[in-house]
């Protein structure tokens, strides 16, 4: 492992120090499926729910420590906060209100018995540990990995998802990937997103200053965040591979359409009898028509109904 020069600005330290970890996450099967638009909609919604728990936890931590000297230069929830957008997207994709999605079957399964999947629980617990510590500087690593990822590769993912799920770029269901301009409320173009990233990097450099201990701690935590992200994708892969966990993406009322068994049996029996009669007796000519009417009346009787007069 190469030694990172901690005398560099923090943004350069992070770029060099997390390069390998970043590349490893990009080649995960779940990430590849998402980039190709091959992730089933229900699996994607479940993934968004996991992201919501992550963002909600660390954004609450950032809010709590917004005046910390390392975190203050990059704290701009109006520009960056993603948890509200995740909530809106989840609700839209499920066809429910934002107040309802946490009680939806998918989220209920995700949080069964009041616990999160191990990978997600470990990730959020680590964020909470930092937020509760005497030095929350490492929260900057979580903001760096997540926000700059959303502003970069997230835009490629958005295009794939828009095509796969029939959504509009930047519209409902994909607002998580949309940002406003740095100094206005207009939707940010790719060029404007680059300006946001440059602003964020400058803020990180200002917050860390020349403190090598802070740089080392943030770099170490950033590598850990990429590892956590990898475990989240592995959780997606595990769930996809578990046939017993797969269910059809249902309507918002969560009630799959079904038919009474008696009706199904009646239809099958009717088809069988009709095939037999057609094969043996035939229904041609005047006598054929009379036989057809007799069979029709008999079938109506089997179904417990009578032909309308």
From TrEMBL:
It comes from the Eukaryota. The chain crosses the membrane at residues 261-284. Keywords: Heme, Iron, Membrane, Metal-binding, Transmembrane, Transmembrane helix. GO terms for biological process: heme oxidation. Heme b binds at residues 15, 22, 144, 201. InterPro entries: Haem_Oase, Haem_Oase-like, Haem_Oase-like_multi-hlx. Gene3D superfamilies: Heme oxygenase-like (1.20.910.10). GO terms for molecular function: heme oxygenase (decyclizing) activity; metal ion binding. This is Heme oxygenase. It comes from Mycena indigotica.
């Amino acid at each position: 492992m190469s030694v990172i020069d901690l005398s560099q600005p923090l943004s350069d330290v992070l770029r060099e120090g997390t390069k390998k970890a970043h590349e490893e996450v990009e080649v995960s099967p779940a990430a590849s499926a998402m980039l190709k638009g091959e992730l089933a909609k229900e699996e994607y919604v479940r993934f968004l729910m996991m992201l919501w728990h992550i963002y909600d936890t660390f954004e609450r931590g950032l809010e709590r420590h917004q005046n910390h000297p390392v975190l203050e230069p990059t704290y701009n929830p109006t520009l960056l906060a993603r948890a509200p957008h995740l909530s809106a997207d989840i609700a839209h994709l499920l066809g429910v209100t934002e107040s309802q999605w946490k009680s939806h079957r998918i989220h209920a399964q995700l949080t069964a018995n009041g616990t999160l999947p191990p990978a997600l629980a470990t990730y959020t617990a680590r964020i909470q540990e930092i937020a509760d510590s005497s030095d929350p500087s490492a929260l900057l690593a979580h903001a760096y990995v997540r926000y700059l990822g959303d502003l970069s590769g997230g835009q490629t993912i958005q295009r794939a998802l828009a095509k796969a799920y029939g959504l509009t770029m930047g519209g409902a269901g994909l607002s998580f990937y949309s940002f406003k301009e740095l100094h206005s409320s207009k939707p940010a173009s790719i060029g404007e997103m680059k300006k946001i990233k440059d602003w964020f990097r400058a803020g990180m450099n200002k917050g860390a200053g020349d403190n090598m201990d802070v740089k080392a701690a943030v770099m170490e935590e950033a590598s850990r965040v990429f590892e956590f992200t990898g475990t989240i994708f592995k959780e997606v892969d595990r769930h996809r591979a578990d046939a017993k966990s797969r269910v059809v993406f249902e309507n918002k009322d969560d009630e799959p359409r079904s038919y009474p068994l008696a009706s199904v049996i009646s239809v099958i029996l009717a088809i069988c009898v009709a095939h037999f009669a057609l094969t043996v007796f035939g229904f041609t000519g005047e006598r054929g028509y009379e036989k057809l009417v007799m069979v029709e009346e008999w079938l109506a009787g089997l179904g417990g109904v009578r032909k309308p007069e």
